[in-house]
Design brief:
Layout (H helix, E strand, L loop, with lengths): L1 H19 L2 E3 L8 E3 L32 E2 L5 E2 L6 E2 L15 E4 L7 E13 L3 E14 L1 E2 L2 E2 L7 E9 L6 E8 L22 E11 L2 E13 L6 E5 L5 E6 L1
Parallel strand pairs: 1-2
Antiparallel strand pairs: 3-4, 5-16, 6-15, 7-14, 8-13, 8-15, 8-16, 9-10, 11-12, 11-14
Length: about 250
């Protein structure tokens, strides 16, 4: 009797497959090549579990869930393939980038200056969406010869963003405002007035941009501005550990 039941089941599945070209589990009317019915539940792939896949973090987070990706061959994977991923290393080395130093001079007409401090070139073979995450560090001074801290009471704004193919649109804009508590602006300053804070500041942003087929240039830029009349400002970009993450969809 048991053998008869197995034979009947195999004949039924074969008939279903030959009639529809699809396989149904828990349904007699599959709508795709493989159709799991409501009564079946979820799909389990042991090659992706915590014991068989190094990208599954279930051994440290047993109740966690982890994203599943599909590569260009249609293979399922937990491994994230990225276009760029600094992953804890320094993505932008300021010692190799002369443009990382930005100077705003006293008397500048509009009180702001822009400079490109890093460039990426990307080639894609189809229309796609590019995800860009970045975090860039910088330090703010008054002058660089000699290197002096800001003593006046004027605020400085340091904005970062990137442009695509030298077009004017700005993507991923982020800003920080640098100021101190000095009240005399401009000079002279008294010996009791504070010197500006020291240390690195950071701008971070996440954004998405559409790319057409071909080669594209991403220019990472910084804009330094002050109140008018403009105040002398010297900004060093990418002085600490900076991160860049890019992924194509």
């Amino acid at each position: 009797m048991r053998n008869t039941y197995i034979l009947f089941t195999l004949l039924l599945c074969n008939s279903l497959l030959s009639q529809t070209g699809s396989v149904g589990i828990g349904t007699t009317n599959p709508q795709q090549k493989l159709h799991l019915g409501n009564s079946v539940g979820t799909l389990r792939v042991e090659s992706l579990d915590k014991d068989n896949n190094i990208y599954n973090g279930g051994n440290t987070e047993p109740t966690g869930t982890y994203p599943l990706y599909v590569d260009s061959n249609g293979v399922l994977s937990l491994h994230l393939e990225t276009l760029a991923n600094s992953d804890g290393s320094d993505a932008i080395d300021h010692t190799t980038i002369p443009q990382s130093n930005i100077r705003l001079t006293t008397g500048d007409a509009d009180g702001k200056i822009e400079a490109t401090f890093y460039t990426y070139t990307i080639t894609v073979t189809r229309p796609t969406i590019l995800e860009v995450k970045y975090s860039v560090s910088f330090e703010v001074f008054q002058t660089d010869t000699p290197l002096t801290m800001i003593r006046d009471g004027g605020a400085r704004r340091v904005s970062t963003y990137y442009t695509l193919d030298n077009a004017p649109r700005k993507y991923g804009q982020a800003s920080r405002c640098y100021m101190n508590r000095n009240i005399n602006n401009p000079a002279p300053y008294t010996s009791l007035e504070r010197i500006g804070a020291t240390g690195q500041l950071y701008n971070s942003s996440t954004t998405y941009v559409q790319l057409t087929t071909g080669t594209h240039t991403l220019n990472f830029k910084a804009e330094v501005s002050s109140n008018l009349p403009s105040q002398a400002t010297f900004v060093r970009m990418a002085v600490d550990t900076d991160s860049v993450f890019m992924r194509l969809y």
